[in-house]
């Protein structure tokens, strides 16, 4: 089986980073070589764009400006990180990818889905992950978690997207669930509202399916 491209999606505070760290440790323990990256970011150019996007330079919040920044970062990440790692036979786990753009700029900000698809064709050739884990939970809970997490991590607290109202995050969550329903094969919806251990068990199950497939192919080959 060719190396897998896996993405983690969900609201801020839904547990992507927490479970990404655990997933990588587990996959490496299974003998899988893993490369980790994230969006926006993952490359030097991506870091600059991420800072612009989250730091308040994009004002007033305009969906199309956001759209072009995130796709610029994404293309650079594909060229510089994701494709070379896959070509070297590594599994790639990316924290956010194009589904985030549909969820946040499309469902959240109301940018036309057609415009997103058009830019996606230009930037990635319509590239799709092999597997996407969607960490789902009510926005109220996600917000609480990301706040207490941030208070520990950094003193200054919130970023620009963080300042959006709950209505915005409700649209983003519903958007994610719609995307998952449209592509049931690719998505695994992980219920992230409960304790860590329950979420981790679901992540493990989703990844174990992949590892089993991989070793079956290795045995055949
Ligand atoms: N079931 C759970 N899964 C993941 N994180 C949880 C869970 N319950 C509580 N948390 C807490 O929520 C926060 C999630 O933050 P993080 O993993 O950084 O999310 P994200 O990367 O999606 O923004 C952490 O502080 C974590 O300890
Ligand atoms: Mg994170």
Q: How many structurally independent domains? A: 1
Strand order of the largest sheet: 2-3-1-4-5
Please give the number of β-strands: 5
| Ligands, ions, cofactors | adenosine-5'-diphosphate, magnesium ion
What ranges have pLDDT less than 50 throughout 5 or more consecutive residues? Answer: none
Between the first and last Cα atoms, what is the distance in angstroms?
9 Å
Instruction: Classify the fold: give the CATH topology.
Output: Rossmann fold
The CATH superfamily is identified as P-loop containing nucleotide triphosphate hydrolases
What is the arithmetic mean of pLDDT?
90
User: How would you sum up the global shape?
Assistant: globular
Q: Given the structure, what is the number of helices?
A: 8
- Beta-strand residue percentage: 5-15%
| Spatial extent as radius of gyration | 17 Å
Strand/helix succession? EHEHHEHHEHHEH
Q: Could you characterize the architecture of this molecule?
A:
The chain contains 8 helices and 5 strands; from the N terminus they run βαβααβααβααβα. The chain has helices at residues 16-29, 44-54, 63-87, 98-108, 113-124, 139-153, 166-182, 196-220; strands at 5-10, 34-38, 91-95, 131-136, 187-191. Strands 2-3-1-4-5 form a 5-stranded parallel beta sheet, with helices on both faces. 37% of the residues are buried. The model has no long low-confidence stretch (mean pLDDT 90). Magnesium ion binds next to α1.
């Amino acid at each position: 089986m060719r190396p897998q491209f896996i993405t983690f999606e969900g609201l801020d505070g839904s547990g992507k980073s927490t479970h990404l760290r655990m997933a990588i440790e587990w996959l490496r323990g299974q003998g899988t070589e893993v490369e980790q990256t994230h969006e926006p970011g993952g490359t030097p150019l991506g870091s600059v764009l991420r800072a612009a996007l989250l730091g308040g330079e994009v004002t007033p919040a305009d969906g199309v400006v956001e759209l072009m920044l995130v796709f610029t970062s994404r293309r650079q990440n594909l060229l510089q990180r994701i494709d070379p790692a896959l070509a070297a036979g590594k599994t790639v786990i990316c924290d956010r990818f194009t589904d985030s753009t549909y969820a946040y700029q499309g469902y959240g900000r109301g940018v036309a889905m057609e415009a997103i698809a058009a830019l996606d064709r230009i930037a990635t050739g319509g590239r799709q992950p092999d597997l996407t884990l969607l960490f789902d939970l009510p926005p109220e809970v996600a917000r609480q978690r990301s706040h207490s997490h941030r208070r520990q991590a950094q003193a200054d607290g919130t970023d620009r997207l963080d300042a959006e109202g709950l209505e915005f995050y409700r649209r983003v969550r519903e958007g994610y669930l719609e995307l998952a329903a449209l592509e049931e094969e690719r998505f695994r919806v992980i219920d992230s509202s409960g304790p860590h251990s329950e979420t981790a068990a679901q992540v493990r199950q989703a990844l174990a399916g992949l590892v089993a497939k991989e070793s079956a192919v290795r045995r055949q080959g």
